[in-house]
Design goal:
seven-stranded antiparallel β-sheet; 27 helices; ATPase_P-type_domA; transmembrane; transmembrane helix; translocase; ATPase_P-typ_cyto_dom_N
Length: 806
């Protein structure tokens, strides 16, 4: 703000503009010229770090094609193409199709993520040729002059060129939470961000030379790892491999050496025993489910910066909400200016206008004041104190038009006023109506004095009305319905925050807690947090402590926010959610960014995570039941020294009808159940008894059939009977997994049963799959054994539920 013409401070004087009152012209650095920029680009001195939102196409293809299980199945497929009819090689075509689906879905997810990343990309303000403009971070060159304001992230390393009370938080790099005051000549590091004040710095290191460049690239990369779900599946697959290798070797020796059968038939039956041991579709289906989740959320303008965040939010049981920008919209309106102690209202409005002009980057509260009280261009700002969420106030010193000097503070009344001040009673009544109140006070101290707020004289109350988000009430109701506790944590007055939360129907909003009374001990703080829902006057460090306290009580915590004061808490929370309009720093540390700034999108993210986790847990039981019964059948065959009952075509048919097709639909179905921990234990407690029962029932039918049938075609009849039993037991596993029933789930199970009956009824399908039931005694015996197996399965799984609860 420059010096203005002299005015009469009573409001009615005349304007005088003598030349000698004009201030000296202050020359700001103009930044690089267009020619200098072009020269640096030619030398390669550009910030060309390839920060990607997703894996490359080559990475996606490689990850889906070159897997351990695809390699095993590929070798077996080639063998079967040589020694057996095409029917016995169908499993290879299924893998090709599944892998293709996985690649296509991940490429779609990549396209969605890349598009959203461009929308949400930060545009640092760079001064060139004397003009400031936002450009992409990749266009910054060495020597560029980059402007900074509250919430801006430092994108490259540099040296401060201009500073106006600029405070920078380097905690994401150093772990030190206290902001550092920066002056011209001080270094700044990429990855830090401005918490107060502003200025500009000159880029000294760009591209991969910047301190945090590699960290930033890794943090923003799309990933499918480091989640309980995927690590659990990896653990399961590791054990499966250990079981599969010795079992497969024993099966090979049994079928090729011990039994003196036709070589090609022995090879076919050996491969038929090995292939179903591999739960190859489980990994693929998980990738597809995650990828589809990204696409669905992308359509809702939700950028998932780290894919496991979908899973993490599904496990959340406490969501911490910042009031401003989350429950309320960013804008505010001044509804009243209430003068105190006989102050002149016209003079007060001039002070407010000058305060608004003194801050080049006003927050929402100050912007409302600027709109209501434009600056009269008559005062000169000699010093300013930017707003800080830790101080709860801002300030400025002015040279008034008549030569008078004055220093003013604007901020939280309960911070600036002493306890028991009469004005606090009026403020409480306003807060109870959900209004936000700021105090304008005149101080006699210098702005850089630690006692600047001491003995400040209250001059006026500025009453602001916040705009509630129209979707906030429904969103809070959703969380209540889903047993997710909502905690409103705000830096504003506790009573005012409680009134806003009450208007939105938040349970417990009437019991508000002033965070200044919170205990420092995490255990005691956690007890207070568990018993209350609304907290006001929370400092940035307290937000971080509150997240830690909740986590210490076993809670999975999500934190939402859009301001710089939310960054530390967002970083420490299990899941950080930022608004797209929030500061660059919050968007950088959050795993999920709501680009449409709609709090109502959050339930969609929770629902998507629950759908993915719940459904993958459900279908994993199908895949691993098949693995368990395949290993057990192979062991029983080796021990009994008999032919393996199945050809690959039989198990391809069974896997397709009882696992492959149903799993695809079940994995994409709605599922609102909150994700639970211990994925491996929860899946295996069903898969093991299911696999044991299926193997025992199938082998029993096979042994009965071997005693019942004789002659040259006996093996085919025995295989058909055993296949019938295995299909029926597997269908019962599917029927249990599909519960609770809906019309489409009943239709799905019935359709799979109808497809198998079609194979048994149509002659050319009988020949194609080598399935033909001979006589009536053995087929009905197979059905009876399967029915007994289904009954045992029901009892076993109910016992497991009681003995090993999830």
């Amino acid at each position: 703000m420059t010096q203005r013409a002299k005015i009469d401070t009573d409001g009615g004087g005349t304007r005088d503009t003598p030349a000698e009152t004009e201030p000296p012209v202050v020359h700001r650095p103009a930044g690089l010229t267009a020619a200098e920029v072009a020269e640096r680009v030619a030398r390669g001195e550009v910030n060309d770090v390839p920060v990607r939102s997703s894996r490359s196409t080559a990475d996606i293809v490689r990850a889906n094609v070159f897997t351990r299980f695809n390699a095993i199945i590929g070798v077996l497929w080639v063998i079967m193409l040589v020694v057996a009819p095409i029917q016995d090689s169908l499993f290879g075509f299924v893998i090709v199709a599944n892998t293709g689906i996985g690649i296509i879905q991940e490429l779609r997810a990549k396209k969605t993520l890349d598009g959203l990343a461009v929308i949400g990309e930060a545009k640092p303000t760079v001064r060139r040729d004397g003009r400031a403009a936002g450009i992409s971070t990749s266009e910054i060159v060495l020597g560029d002059l980059i402007e900074l304001g509250p919430g801006d992230k430092v994108v490259v390393d540099g040296v401060v060129a201009e500073a106006d009370s600029m405070e920078i938080d380097e905690s994401l790099l150093t772990g030190e939470a206290d902001p550092v005051v920066k002056r011209p000549g001080d270094p700044v590091m990429s990855g830090s961000f401005v918490v107060a004040g502003g200025g500009a710095f000159t880029a000294t290191k760009v591209g991969r030379e910047a301190y945090a460049a590699q960290l930033a690239e890794e943090a923003s990369r799309f990933t499918l790892v480091h989640s309980e779900l995927r690590s659990g599946i990896s653990t399961i697959l590791k054990y499966v491999t250990w079981m599969m290798v010795p079992t497969a070797i024993g099966l090979i020796i049994s079928q090729l050496v011990v039994k003196d059968n036709d070589l090609k038939n022995s090879i076919a039956r050996t491969v038929g025993g090995i292939v179903p041991m591999i739960p190859e579709g489980l990994v693929l289906l998980t990738s597809v489910a995650f990828a589809i989740g990204v696409i669905r959320l992308g359509r809702k303008q939700c950028l998932v910066q780290e894919l496991p965040a979908i899973e993490g939010l599904a496990r959340v049981d406490v969501v911490c909400l910042d009031k401003t920008g989350t429950l309320t919209e960013g804008g505010m309106d001044v509804t009243e200016v209430r003068v105190l102690h006989g102050a002149d209202e016209t003079y007060v409005r001039k002070v407010l206008g000058a305060l608004g002009e003194s801050d080049p980057r006003p927050n929402a509260s100050l912007q409302a004041i600027i709109t209501a009280h434009p600056d009269t261009e008559e005062w000169r700002c000699t010093e300013s104190l930017p707003f800080s969420s830790a101080r709860k106030y801002s300030g400025a010193a002015f040279s008034e038009g008549d030569g008078e000097e004055s220093t003013w503070l604007l901020g939280a009344p309960d911070v600036l006023l002493p306890a028991g001040d009469p004005a606090l009673a009026d403020i409480d009544r306003l807060n109870e109506q959900g209004l936000r109140v700021l105090l304008l006070a005149r101080t006699v101290h210098e702005l850089d004095s630690p006692d600047v707020a001491k003995d400040a004289r209250a001059t006026a109350l500025v009453v602001l009305e916040q705009r509630l988000r129209p979707d906030a009430a429904d969103t809070l109701a959703y969380f209540a319905d889903q047993d997710v506790a909502a905690k409103v944590i705000s830096g504003d007055n506790a009573v005012s925050v409680g009134a806003v939360a009450g208007k939105l129907g938040l349970p417990g909003a009437e019991n508000t807690v002033d965070a200044r009374t919170l205990p420092a001990d995490h255990e005691e703080m956690a007890r207070v947090l568990d018993g209350n829902a609304v907290f006001g006057r929370v400092t940035p460090q307290q937000k971080r402590d509150m997240v830690a306290a909740l986590q210490s009580h076993g809670h999975t915590v999500a934190m939402t926010g859009d301001g710089v004061n939310d960054v530390l808490a967002l970083k420490d929370a299990d899941i950080g959610v930022s608004m797209g309009s929030g500061s660059e720093a919050t968007r950088a540390v959050a795993q999920i960014v709501l680009l449409n700034n709609s709090f109502a999108t959050l339930p969609s993210v929770v629902a998507e995570g629950r759908r993915v986790i719940g459904n993958i847990t459900r279908v994993a039981t199908l895949f691993l039941t098949k693995t368990v019964y395949s290993v057990l059948l192979a062991i029983l065959v080796v021990v009994s020294q008999i032919e393996y009952p199945f050809l690959p075509r039989h198990l391809t048919l069974l896997s397709t009808l009882t696992i492959g097709i149903p799993a695809f639909f079940l994995a994409l179905a709605p599922n609102k159940e909150r994700a639970k921990p211990h994925f491996v234990r929860r899946v295996m407690r069903y898969a093991i008894p299911g696999g044991v029962v299926a193997a025992a029932a199938t082998f029993t039918t096979y042994l009965l059939a071997r005693h019942h049938y004789t002659g040259a075609d006996a093996l085919g009849a025995e295989t058909s009977a055993a296949t019938l039993t295995l299909f029926l037991v597997s269908m019962w596993v599917l029927a249990i997994i599909a519960r609770p029933y809906t019309w489409w789930r009943v239709a799905l199970v019935a359709a799979m049963g109808g497809a198998f009956l079609l194979v048994l009824a149509v002659p050319w399908l009988q020949d194609f799959f080598a399935l033909k039931l001979v006589g009536t005694t053995m087929p009905w015996a197979a059905v009876a054994v399967a029915a007994a197996g289904a009954a045992v399965l029901e009892v076993a799984w109910r016992w497991v539920d009681r003995r090993f609860p999830a």
